[in-house]
Amino acid sequence: MSGSLQATVTLQNHFAREMPQMALPWRAEDFPDRRMVVLNEPLATELGLDPAFLRDEDGLRFLTGALDLEGATPVAQAYAGHQFGGYSPRLGDGRALLLGEIADAGGRLRDIHLKGSGPTPFSRSGDGMAAQGPMLREYIVSEAMHALGIPTTRSLAVVATGQKVYRETVLPGAVLARVASSHLRVGSFQYAAARGDLELLRRLVDHALDRHHPELLQAENRPLALLHAVLSAQASLVAQWMHVGFVHGVMNTDNMTISGETIDYGPCAFVDAYDPAAVYSSIDLAGRYAYRNQPAMAGWNLARFAEALLPAIHDDREQAIALAQDALNTFVPQYSAAWTSGFLAKLGLRDDLEEAVAVPLLEDLLTLMQGSRVDFTSFFRRLGQAARGRPEPAREIFIDLAGFDAWAERWQALAPDADAMDAVNPIYIPRNHLVEEALAAADEGDLEPLTRLVDAVTRPYTERTGLERYAEPAPESFGKYRTFCGT
Ligand code: AMP
Ligand code: MG
After folding, report:
1. 254 tagged catalytic
2. pTM
3. Which of 88, 122, 198, 217 is within CB 3.0–4.6 Å of 94 for a Cys-Cys bond?
4. Domain final position from 360, 394, 416
5. Residue ID of nearest Cα to ligand 1 atom 3
6. Residue 306 counted as domain residue
């Protein structure tokens, strides 16, 4: 790392200055009784921020939006979005603020964003607040995703506000300080497009390229180049979700980034007993965002993104549609290639294995796993032992033993690499029951379970003694898991 840690903060305001039509200057609510719940010290250091400063009174004020910084322009961002298929022309940051951007140790711009920082003109009927539990949940899961090597927004800190938040019950309030390579969403482009202002749309394209793909500013057709880049990033991202059994839960277009980072950990969960129809969100009654639907829903969102870009892609609408359609057609093959190659890696197999062998091998395995309701995460780790000649730990979790044996014989014949498997198959993920346990304890003032869980899931591939229960599926008594939106 170059440079020294800062006892003050320098925030830039690129988004606020370059996109003023989509940035409403606003102030966070003042929370006099703020108190640190959890600070991500490695991330602070990566951002050039001194953890000791952040824990101090001024640091806590900074992390809740109450520190006035010269040159900073905190804004609520405007965006639109399709929520469960229905279009809302005006969503925006109803309980969040973009404080500004920080150049990190590598010189990259990172957004510093607050969630739960009080009402804004975009709050609609919401109170602008966040409860501590859901903010800690985002902290745990986003840091786990990062440790798994999956692109994601990061969590810098959760600060308790000292105020009560009224949901089904009365809960402690908190602010999450989130770090992202940007907060541009598909819904940001839908918002710009809906204003019918082509100059605004083009400026947003250039802003996004400058932020994420500066080399593409030279492209002949910049909006089309952006579309291609986002298609690739999202194809890769959603494939990686599938490889770890992650169900995002609320893949609305306002929750899909242009950067290709996972964002907005609301009703998300990890699949335990493998079921492609797994869905956890209490409001997703139709299973729109179920595990198996995620690639199709990503494709649907990206079609909305392409639509928003049409006027910028070409003056002639027919030609714009043809170009956008050609781009969209690349999504499925890119996703499929990423899906296959990631699952082959989980099986310790080379990714140049013939597709005619690879795809049936994977599909047959998933069918067997579903039939026996096998725990998704621990199965792949146990299979690593099978590659070392000890099939029993993997085998014993199947009901259909003959089916597993026949499959394992086909797989073994391909000479799987056990060490390679252990490097990509996590032992520790934020299992739903462990997350709930940590959040409940934190609400009672006990941060120990949270600390231990974060420690486990941020080193997910290294087996450690004492962490056995973090590798186990939920006890039977945990029952069917439900998650809640709008928390
Ligand atoms: P989400 O699906 O959680 O990303 O949120 C969708 C929209 O609802 C965004 O515009 C949020 O800012 C807004 N929202 C969610 N919760 C609240 C709240 N408690 N108060 C105000 N706005 C909210
Ligand atoms: Mg959102």
Report:
1. yes
2. 0.97
3. 122
4. 416
5. 486
6. no
